[in-house]
From TrEMBL:
InterPro entries xref list: DUF3035
Residue span of region Disordered: 51-70
PROSITE patterns attached to this UniProt entry: PROKAR_LIPOPROTEIN
Protein name, UniProt field: DUF3035 domain-containing protein
């Protein structure tokens, strides 16, 4: 009897320790120790480059981009193609562009895919208890569309392609 009373008091004392908000203990402790800046929020800038002559500098244009601003899309194109800037595709890319657009180009493809996915998710909402308890059913919904890495690697190897080894499960 004494042990049951002690257990009841222990549960009561521990339940009184919880906060009324939804933040966890880890979030509260990490929020109280925010004395240093977040090193991931600081982006490195491009290095400053001094031209040969200061007369070569373009006139300042308010609101325009700075020469040291980050340009991730242009940097990606330069890294992949070797060309700088967001230039139009060159003539050597013609075969690739015609092969990609052989079935026509749908300018509103994103809205079409978004609508089709919303309809697919509406038809495959998951079981009742999964919806009631707000369980993430994304893995279950898209399980038939998922590629099996071992099967796909074996199929590509049969075609004579070199495939890196599949990581273990």
């Amino acid at each position: 009897m004494r042990m049951m009373r002690f257990g009841f008091l222990a549960v009561l004392a521990l339940s009184a320790c919880g906060g009324s908000d939804d933040t966890s203990l880890v979030e509260r402790v990490s929020a109280s120790n925010k004395t240093s800046p977040d090193e991931f929020a600081v982006l490195p800038q491009k290095p400053l480059v001094l031209p040969e002559s200061l007369d070569e500098l373009p006139p300042p244009t308010p609101g325009a981009g700075n020469r040291t601003d980050l340009t991730p899309r242009a940097d990606m194109i330069a890294a992949l193609t070797g060309r700088t800037g967001l230039a139009a595709p060159v003539a050597s890319d013609g075969a690739l562009i015609s092969a990609l657009s052989r079935a026509g180009v749908t300018p509103d493809i994103r809205s079409v895919v978004r609508a089709e996915d919303a309809e697919f998710r509406r038809r495959n909402r998951g079981l009742l208890l999964e919806r009631v308890f707000d369980k993430d059913t994304e893995y279950l919904i898209y399980r038939r569309q998922r590629l099996d890495p071992e099967t796909e690697a074996a199929r590509l190897r049969r075609q004579g392609l070199q495939v890196p080894p599949v990581p273990p499960r």
